[in-house]
Amino acid sequence: MQQSNAYIITFSIILTVVLGLLLSGTSEVLKPIQKKAEELDTKKQILGAVMSADEISEMKPEEINEFYQNRISSKVVNLEGEEVEEQDGAQVTAETIDVGKNYKKAPEERLYPVFIFHEEGDEDAANAYIFPVYGNGLWDNIWGYLALQTDMATIEGITFSHAGETPGLGARITSTDVQQRYKEKSIYNEDGELVSVVMQKGEGKDYSGDPHKVDGLSGATITADGVNKMLKSYLDHYKGYMEKKKEGSPRMAQN
Amino acid sequence: MSTETAEKEVAVKDAEDLFSKRRKKLITDPLVDDNPITIQVLGICSALAVTTQMQPTLVMALSVIFVMVMANLSISLLRNKIPTRVRIIVQLAVVASLVTLVNEVLKAFAFDMYKELSVFVGLIITNCIVMGRLEAYALGNKPYDSVLDGFGSALGYSWIILTVAFFRELWGSGSLFGIPIFDGISSLFGDDFQLATNGLMVSPVGAFIILGLLIWVQRSKTGYVEH
Q1: CA-based torsion, A242, A248, A253, A255: positive or negative
Q2: Does A167 touch chain B (CB under 8 A)?
Q3: Would residue A28 count as lying in a domain?
Q4: Looking at residue A21, what is its pLDDT?
Q5: Which distant-in-sequence residues (6+ apart) come within 8 Å of B36 by Cβ?
Q6: ipTM of this complex
Q7: Interchain pair A22, B50: CB under 8 A
């Protein structure tokens, strides 16, 4: 059966309109729920840097929100480590900063959120400092949250996320046993230089004796390289803030 | 594929049973005798990729069932209206919309799954099983039969990837649905005993091996030979 061109075009237009309406309708209806899920996920990732995944998965969404409220305070700093409260006349908060958007700017122009994990009810009693990191994986962006202990050198914990790494290969950066490898590693060497922690090529070796190396991801070297670059660059960007924190004695530390 | 395109609409009496013998065959055929993965060898990409764990595999299987049933239904309903010259694009548009729907719903209600699966849910569009059934069956058959056909094929796909995932997660990670199995078994035999997991199973190579074994077992049972 041969149809006329006019029929084909009309059919295509109607189909496009119907499908378009269906999709935009769904998107519009689901958007608020998706936004909540996304915010909750970000909070989980931030908390994941200082808590074990098991602890978090046992918590209900409301509990996570409450815990986050009680234990996390935040601020925004610039490359020099100075606190920033407004930009272009608008107030900025760490929660509203899109690290991915900032990533596209030059490092000097970016805003850097800092999340402080503190004792309940006492914002001065910091337990760990959590820094968002952002970079490129193999297929798409990768990001994460790095928690440093109060000495600003030892890694308390880390979480990674990704937009499109290969499942089973690069996507393994989200698994707990990969993230565990970073625990207790140190980002400064003996000479006080910032060397970050580097994921090695190949997998299965024991790097427990080396504070700056972690076991690699077999089959995902490019993702691992991306992780290394991401950590190094963002640690450099947060260096200003970290140095400032280190200079002040713990009692003077203002959170 | 080649055997599939020859299917023609069978003349059906008015009052055919809701689950007549012929209709049952629509569902049961793709499970073993005409399985999309093991016999037609379609949809291998996702079968290899998502099957490291049971849970994402289950979500993937459900998504494929939904997409195939709905796509077969809509294409079958429109089968007399779809212009032949643009039918592939029309099929693609319908499948793509359904897949986007699944993705949006996952994002809203199962964000963790969404993060884990998003690439592969998107790739359902390119899953040859979906397009294959639309082209071979839904375009020429009534809606209800097409729904059954889509359901059957999707089920055939699902049980295979679930089986592959079962072995891969059990051997590769020592757990099922994230629940540690090996640790539990090991503790029965005392402190020094630990069942070892096989890292090969976690990598795509493991899926190839399991899938190959599955096809072997199945073909030696059914006696199926490639023409």
Answers
A1: negative
A2: yes
A3: no
A4: 94
A5: B30, B42, B43, B129, B132, B153, B156, B157
A6: 0.70
A7: no
Report how far residue B1's alpha carbon sits from residue B43's, in angstroms, rounded to the nearest whole number: 12
> Which residues of chain A fall short of a pLDDT of 70?
1-2, 167, 247-255
Inter-chain CB proximity B101 and A23 less than 8 Å: yes
User: What are the residue boundaries of the structural domains of chain B, listed by start?
Assistant: 42-220
Residue-range definition of the domain harbouring residue A217: 44-247
Distance to chain A for B169, nearest Cα, Å: 12
Closest-CA residue of chain B to A175: B116
For residues A113 and B220, give the distance between their C-alpha atoms in angstroms, rounded to a whole number.
61
B111-122 helix and B87-109 helix, angle to the nearest 10 degrees: 170
Number of domains in chain A: 1
Predicted confidence (pLDDT) per residue in A34-91, tens digit? 888 888 888 888 888 888 777 777 788 888 888 888 888 888 888 887 888 777 777 7
- Counting other chains too, the contacts that A60-63 makes at CB distance below 8 Å and 24 or more residues apart are none
Alpha-carbon distance of A66 to A60, in angstroms, equals 10
Asked whether residue A25 is domain-assigned, the answer is: no
3-state secondary structure of B119: helix
Contacts of A22 in chain B (CB under 8 A): 97, 101
Query: Which pLDDT does position A29 carry in this prediction?
Result: 92
Compute the 3-state secondary structure of chain B and give helix, strand, coil in percent, each to the nearest 5: 70, 0, 30
